[in-house]
């Protein structure tokens, strides 16, 4: 599956695009739509086209592939896209070990939102931004569409 436009819009609404490298909430050098990597360092500047192109690659690699590979049950387009937003933020390793994934793969769809909501901290402290993001992801998850 691919992340739908609602999911892309959701990710972009929380990541925002910064054309100059910055330190994210965990102190990791980032650029564009939340891109991180060994090539990112403070002082790095990208064009909007570079940022948008890298976002599509990051979305495919960091979110769509892990969700496609780790989820073993059927998802609606909005459920898939909500998980892509979630995984784009927390990382595939964290998703792999999450109770949200384990409950989902056990068929407990209704319990997934509460376990997504557990991921609301930055550096050990509750984050209002992450709380808003998790609520938006859950809202997309709960928005009906067909499998």
Shape: globular
What is the count of helical runs? 7
Distance between the termini: 11 Å
In which range does the helix fraction lie?
40-55%
CATH fold-level assignment: Lysozyme
User: What profile does the largest beta sheet have?
Assistant: 2 strands, antiparallel
CATH architecture assignment name: Orthogonal Bundle
What's the number of domains? 1
Q: Which value, in Å, is the CA radius of gyration?
A: 15 Å
Structure description:
This protein has 147 residues and is mainly alpha-helical. The chain has a single domain, classed as Lysozyme. Helices cover 54% and strands 10% of the residues. The protein has a two-stranded antiparallel ribbon with strand order 1-2. The protein has a two-stranded antiparallel sheet with strand order 3-4. Strand 1 (18-23) and strand 2 (29-32) form a beta hairpin. The protein is globular and about 45 Å long.
Q: Summarize this, please?
A:
With 147 residues, this protein is mainly alpha-helical. 54% of the residues lie in helices and 10% in strands.
């Amino acid at each position: 599956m691919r992340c739908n436009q609602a999911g892309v819009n959701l990710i972009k609404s929380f990541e925002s695009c910064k054309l100059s490298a910055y330190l994210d909430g965990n102190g990791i050098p980032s650029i564009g739509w939340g891109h991180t990597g060994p090539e990112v360092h403070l002082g790095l500047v990208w064009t909007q086209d570079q940022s948008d192109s890298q976002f599509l690659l990051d979305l495919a690699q960091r979110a769509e592939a892990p969700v496609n590979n780790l989820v073993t049950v059927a998802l609606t387009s909005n459920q898939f896209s909500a998980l892509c937003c979630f995984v784009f933020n927390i990382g595939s390793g964290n998703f792999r070990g999450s109770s949200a994934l384990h409950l989902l793969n056990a068929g407990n769809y209704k319990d997934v939102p509460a376990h997504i909501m557990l991921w609301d901290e930055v550096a050990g402290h509750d984050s209002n931004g992450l709380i808003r993001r998790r609520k938006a992801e859950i809202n997309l998850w709960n928005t009906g569409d067909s499998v």
